[in-house]
Specification:
15% strand, alpha/beta, six-stranded mixed β-sheet, 39% helix, 8 helices, single chain, 226 residues, Rossmann fold, 2 domains
């Protein structure tokens, strides 16, 4: 049995608003973030879900409970938290200024000063961007592509195991992780180049097939489009 997966990006957080690097570190949802999520929750209120899941980070947990409370046609019990669906880990850069971080990574990648992450990735490719992030990290803890790819495969395998009797589920995750999933599993991505970063509160829809294959079929859908 195939399982339809609604991947929701958490709402805007304080670190999003303050332009800080936010991977495994956490910060609370903003008022704007909550308001945006309420629009997504309203748009999904009449969609039946067999279950709801989230990353184990608080901004995702708060988001999934907002989705759960607004849904009028689903009976959801305790929310299971899945650490495999955490955001990408940025190591020592967690909580730092985003522009300064990207500039440091750009220099490590050998392209000079650049604070626009999209331009950096367009120049060197996503794999080299991740490698440069790990290299620039003084403790070399940031996830590179091999580590991230391994975690994505584990995440999909875990999801397949726990949803084998479920037709439709909602799962709250994070922008960079959802984007990286889409690069790997969306047929409109060539797997080499960057794609648009998903909006806070957006919905990306995937299909998890019984043979373990996962594919993204809709990406970064806003509440108005649902």
């Amino acid at each position: 049995m195939a399982t339809e997966v609604y991947l929701v990006r958490h709402g805007e957080t304080m670190f999003n608003q303050l332009n800080k690097v936010q991977g495994w570190c956490d910060s609370p949802l903003t008022v704007k973030g909550i308001d945006d999520l309420k629009r997504t929750a309203t748009a999904l209120a009449q969609v039946h879900f067999d279950n709801m899941y989230s990353s184990d980070l608080k901004r995702a947990i708060d988001t999934v409970h907002l989705m759960k409370d607004a849904n009028q046609v689903s009976t959801i019990g305790k929310i299971r938290k899945l650490p495999e669906f955490r955001e990408v880990f940025f190591g020592s850069f967690e909580g730092d200024d985003i522009d300064q971080t990207w500039d440091q990574i750009a220099q490590t990648a050998g392209i000079g000063h650049e604070t626009n992450v999209q331009k950096i990735i367009n120049r060197v490719g996503l794999r080299e961007f991740r490698a440069a992030t790990k290299k620039a990290d003084p403790r070399h803890l940031a996830e590179d592509m091999p580590e991230l790819d391994k975690r994505m495969v584990k995440a999909i395998a875990t999801l397949q195991e726990i949803t084998k009797n479920e037709k439709r589920v909602l799962l709250v995750s994070h922008g960079d992780f959802i984007k990286t999933l889409a690069i790997k599993y969306w047929n409109q991505s060539d797997g080499q180049h960057d794609i648009i970063f998903p909006d806070n509160g957006s919905v990306t829809r995937g299909i998890l097939h019984s043979n373990g294959k996962f594919e993204i079929v809709d990406y970064n859908q806003k509440a108005i489009d649902l």
